[in-house]
Design brief:
- The protein has about 170 residues and is α+β, with helices and mostly antiparallel strands.
- It has one domain: Peptide Deformylase.
- Helix content is about 30%, strand content about 25%.
- Strand 4 and strand 5 form a beta hairpin.
- The longest helix has 23 residues.
- It is globular, with a radius of gyration of 16 Å.
- It starts with about 25 loop residues before the first helix and ends with a helix.
- The structure holds zinc ion.
- The site of zinc ion (ZN) has 5 residues, from helix 2.
Length: about 170
């Protein structure tokens, strides 16, 4: 089932997500919904808060560059244990439609997380997938990528963000 994506400036996007403690069937069903929602929206990653679930869980399309993409990876309670290098590339967010900006992030990360059965795992990612993990962890902390854009550049984003705020208010009123 596809779930509506929570859009900027919804206050939930500023909230801190809670640690996942319940593993099992319900969590797996949620991971499937998140994966379907992410794929439908052409995203590489999605944090649970983006569908209104304030838990520290994310899905990531680890095979985004392959034709047969198969299952996406679900990570619960991800924590960065090591990061290396930096890279600045243009980034976007499914919760902030049509806004794209250059963001500097680590190029390589080592992440510790729990899988959908609660088992501890460690993985290393680089490039776009490292960026995705960092972006989704930011969501779990209530942070958005636009906060990482330098103030001078953020002025240029203001108009776009104001338009999103306006359409959000219009939607809520209906
Ligand atoms: Zn995002």
């Amino acid at each position: 089932m596809l779930r509506p994506i929570v859009l900027y400036p919804d206050p939930r996007l500023k909230m801190k997500s809670k640690t996942v403690t319940q593993f099992g069937t319900e969590l797996k069903a949620l991971a499937v919904e998140m994966t379907e929602t992410m794929r439908e929206a052409n995203g590489v990653g999605l944090a649970a808060v983006q569908i209104g679930e304030l838990i520290r869980m994310m899905v990531m399309d680890v095979n985004y560059d392959k034709e047969d993409r198969g299952e996406a990876l679900a990570m619960c309670n991800p924590e960065i244990v090591n990061e290396e290098g930096t890279e600045t590339i243009e980034e976007g967010c499914l919760s902030i439609p049509d806004v794209r900006e250059d963001v500097e992030r680590s190029f390589k990360v080592k992440v510790k997380y729990q899988d959908l059965d609660g088992k501890s795992q460690v993985s290393e990612y680089e490039g776009l997938l490292a960026r995705c993990v960092l972006h989704e962890i930011d969501h779990m902390e209530g942070r958005l990528f636009i906060q990482k854009v330098p103030a001078v550049k953020r002025l240029f984003l203001k108009k776009q963000l104001d338009e999103l705020k306006k359409s959000y208010q219009e939607t809520v009123r209906l």
